[in-house]
TrEMBL record:
It holds the Pfam family Rubis-subs-bind. This is Rubisco LSMT substrate-binding domain-containing protein. Keywords: Coiled coil. Residues 6-97 form the Rubisco LSMT substrate-binding domain. InterPro entries: Rubisco_LSMT_subst-bd, Rubisco_LSMT_subst-bd_sf. It comes from Scyliorhinus torazame. The keyword Coiled coil applies. Residues 41-75 form a coiled coil. It comes from the Eukaryota.
């Protein structure tokens, strides 16, 4: 369940990113992350920044796909119903990613320096 949702990134996604962002000297504290404890403010910031980058990348890929779908919808008329379904799913995905991006931004602002 490494996902982005309307309420932000999943706990598992954030946990993986926190472990991934551990500095060498923090690695022995990795079990603290698994039980929900913070290792350091730097680790919190780094993992949130990485989550934001990942979310942004997914939004960009989604927008490119939506542009391609739009182009196909204009070129092909006989399969437009199926493409419209795909476009609807992509629009919903974009809304979810945008909501997650906003949650992440708020989380980063609230993270101590």
């Amino acid at each position: 369940n490494l996902t982005f949702g309307l309420d932000g990134p999943s706990w598992r996604l954030l946990t993986v990113l926190k472990v991934f962002c551990l500095r060498t000297e923090e690695y022995l504290q990795r079990k603290n992350i698994l039980v929900g404890l913070s290792v350091s403010a730097d680790n919190e910031r780094s993992s949130l920044e990485l989550a934001e980058k990942l979310c942004s990348q997914l939004m960009n890929e989604n927008l490119k796909a939506m542009q391609e779908i739009s182009k196909l919808l204009n070129e092909i008329g006989d399969v437009s119903e199926q493409l419209e379904v795909v476009a609807t799913v992509r629009r919903e995905e974009l809304k979810i990613l945008q909501a997650s991006a906003e949650v992440l931004q708020n989380m980063r602002v609230a993270t101590p320096r």
